[in-house]
């Protein structure tokens, strides 16, 4: 019978980091399989989480992994992970639109419906690209990463003392460094317009939480700190979603104005000049109402972050 594996904190840095990476590879593989089923609404979310945590391990424990994964494969993983963003962004904005639509006036509804249709088309196209291109590519890449990591060689000289486990001490150093990076990033966020700085803080907070989460049952206080970081991540995550929405709405306002102008021009060409255009649907009131809601939420989130910092 095989002996039980040592606890994660008792392993060497190379063993511990490889264990973590292999766990997220397995979860990403499972999520890829679930992506084949359109009714599984959580598959994309779980795939993105697994890929983020895998990439965090590969980045954070890069020295401990000793080049276990070739650079070309790391770059390919990064490229494929990025392709999952468009579908997720469209889903988030559609969920927000459904949430706020009922509170808007009747004259806002044409603009809301115009935007909803565009987002649905965008989401469907993004999912089609994922299922036909990105997910099959990931399903081919992830087993290769597993083979890269599941075995490694150790050099040991006879009569020399065995190397002492130090995954715990390495992780403690990394936690301290990441916590300091997070604190510095939060201090740089001075106003609601510091969206890039807030996004940077969000990334540092996420990386720190990903360091702590595997140790929740082994490290005293890790569970509580990870929970606090999850709250901060949720706040900063929504702030990032609002920032993305703000930029998108600015573009949509311009696009809707152009669409309406083209419709009116075509209608004028078809109709007698003495009669008004029949197809005069104005999306601007709805889009501008969404812009105002988004601006208000940006301010609320910044005030919440400032009070908690």
Molecular structure report:
The chain is mainly α. It has two domains: 141 residues, Alpha solenoid (CHAD domain), CATH 1.40.20; 139 residues, no CATH class. The chain is built from ten helices and no strands. Helix 2 packs antiparallel against helix 4. It is elongated.
Q: How large, in whole angstroms, is the Cα Rg?
A: 25 Å
Q: State the share of residues found in helices, binned by percent.
A: over 70%
- Indicate the low-confidence ranges by residue numbers: none
Strand runs, count: 0
CATH superfamily heading of the largest domain:
CHAD domain
Work out the helix count.
10
The figure for the number of domains is 2
Beta-strand content: under 5%
Q: What CATH architecture of the largest domain would you give?
A: Alpha solenoid
Name the overall outline: elongated
How do the helices and strands follow one another from N- to C-terminus? HHHHHHHHHH
Summarize the entry for a quick read.
This protein is mainly alpha-helical.
Write the layout of secondary structure elements.
Elements: H1 13-34, H2 43-60, H3 62-65, H4 71-82, H5 85-101, H6 109-149, H7 167-188, H8 195-212, H9 222-270, H10 284-308
List keywords for this structure.
10 helices; 309 residues; CHAD domain
